[in-house]
């Protein structure tokens, strides 16, 4: 695994939290994106070399809706950049980690993603992210 690709933060209201994080980080949201397959709306900010992903539920079936109901707003997941997501998924599986998707799926910001169950990863929901190559978009 490489660097932390982003930190995902669950929020109730993307507009309100977007403004809050813009002030906090003294920056502006550089991208917003709906990801219907995950039932989320996202907004991205940079803090130096780091990336923050704000996540609002777009449907009551969203994992973010369930998380907000149980735990409230806050850090939802940590995403790590990987060069070869299928190889990393196979490695983690062989080490006993529980993958939440058997095949990489399309995430936000031009990434293929896979989630690791927090119960198998020390209570932290982990996301693997591989940049989708330009010629395979
Ligand atoms: C925008 C796209 C993408 C990107 O490109 O970056 C994203 O980031 S999408 C982000 C939203 N999508 C996901 O989170 C998908 C993966 N998540 C899931 O599949 C589920 O949320 C889950 C992790 C399997 C939990 O679902 P479920 O079992 O239905 O919920 P429970 O509330 O019953 O949780 C069971 C258990 O796990 C604990 N939990 C749940 N979420 C988290 C979390 N984010 N971090 C840490 N722990 C978490 C929860 O508290 C329960 O524990 P117990 O209460 O002790 O049983
Ligand atoms: Co994410």
Automatic annotation (TrEMBL):
GO MF annotations, alphabetized: dioxygenase activity; metal ion binding; methylmalonyl-CoA epimerase activity
Keywords from the UniProt entry: Isomerase
A single GO BP: L-methylmalonyl-CoA metabolic process
Keyword Isomerase on entry: yes
Record InterPro entries: Glyas_Bleomycin-R_OHBP_Dase (IPR029068), MeMalonyl-CoA_epimerase (IPR017515), MMCE/EMCE_epimerase (IPR051785), VOC_core (IPR037523)
Enzyme Commission code(s) on record: 5.1.99.1
Top-level division of the source organism's lineage: Bacteria
Entries under PANTHER family matching the protein: METHYLMALONYL-COA EPIMERASE (PTHR43048), METHYLMALONYL-COA EPIMERASE, MITOCHONDRIAL (PTHR43048:SF3)
Protein name: Methylmalonyl-CoA/ethylmalonyl-CoA epimerase
Organism this protein belongs to: Mucilaginibacter gotjawali
């Amino acid at each position: 695994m490489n660097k932390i690709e982003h930190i995902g933060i669950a929020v109730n209201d993307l507009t309100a939290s977007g403004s809050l994080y813009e002030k906090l980080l003294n920056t502006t949201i550089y991208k917003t994106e709906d990801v219907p397959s995950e039932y989320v709306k996202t907004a991205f900010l940079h803090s130096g070399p780091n990336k923050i992903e704000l996540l609002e539920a777009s449907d009551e079936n969203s994992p973010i809706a369930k998380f907000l109901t149980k735990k409230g707003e806050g850090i939802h997941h940590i995403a790590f950049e990987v060069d070869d997501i299928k190889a990393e998924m196979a490695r983690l599986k062989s080490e006993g980690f529980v993958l939440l998707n058997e095949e990489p799926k399309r995430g936000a910001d031009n990434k293929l993603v896979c989630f690791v169950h927090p119960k198998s990863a020390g209570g932290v929901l982990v996301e693997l992210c591989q940049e989708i190559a330009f010629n395979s978009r």
